[in-house]
Design a protein that fits this description.
By secondary structure, this protein is of the alpha/beta class. It has 14 helices and twelve strands. The two termini are 37 Å apart. About 7% of the residues have low confidence.
Length: 366
Amino acid sequence: MNDMIFSPSFGNRPSSFVGRDEMLEQLVGGLTSAPGSRERAVVLLGQRGSGKTVLLWELADRMRQQNFVVATPTIVSESMLERIVEKIIDDADAASKGKTRISGGSVGVLGFSAGLQLQREAHEPGSPQHQLTQLCRTLTKQGRGALILVDELQANTPEVKQLIITYQELVGEGLNVAIVLAGLPGAVSATLNDKVLTFLNRARKIALEPLALGDVDAFLARSFRKIGLSIDGDLRRTASAFTAGSPYLLQLVGHNTVQYAEPDGAVTAETLADALRTSQEDFENDVCRTTLAALSEKDVKFLEALAVEGSESSIAAIADRMGVTPDYAQKYRKRLIDAGIIQVAGRGRVAMAVPYLSDHLQRQRN
């Protein structure tokens, strides 16, 4: 069977957007509020595979419909500000349907079909910060906005600090600008704790929760029908539950179900079991292994103790398995909650927040 819908790779945009429409409507409403509003600075927190990148791209499309020029998702790097300036120019160029002339590869002359034009002297290009300021000033004068999207936020990097300082100055000037930054919870937490970036603490924080299983099941039903798969409703619901609401697992399960289906499109209990097994192996390799690689030895020991207890446990039991005091274990509890890897599961109890991480750790122990 030919998979023409699922895209199981980080950063790929699937053919359909699943389960985040209400969140997107709220985001667009906030980002288009009055300049200077707290709702115009947003921090998205999500584990690997939670759909951060896809959400940013979808947000870019919707904000263009709101008369915004968008710097599409930019990865933190030494030249991040330069890339943001380039992307705003490129997006403006595309919006003008070929009527824009850009000279010298710099901000030179920028025009819109609506008449927007930014003049700069070719021999004095200025710093990226100055170029970004000039662009935002001109956009604001013309009744348009600028949206900056940053993906894979890195903690406490000079580039992030420079961007946030520049953005704060743009806001202080009353310009029509908004920003959305997305990253792993641990990296975002460290960034917010940086004294230089206290401005971000006033930003709106949104944690990407698992997709509703009803939305997942409805998407799989439509997709399998479109591809031509025949699957029993109970089997399809089993596949939906297996995703645990993870957008990346949803793509893996959908893709592998198509790959393992019979030539006539039938999905049996056996072929689905094969598809789910392969999906879990892929997820553990791509998400679980990478998540653990970024942690300290003691963090991993905490998670191993939790996995032995069965994905949910009391802190006292985890501390006992680690051979430490409950107070000592609390330190790692807090770190792992901040990183979004575990979550509170009642008074004095925690649970795994990353699907199949317990299975992965138990297999490693054996």
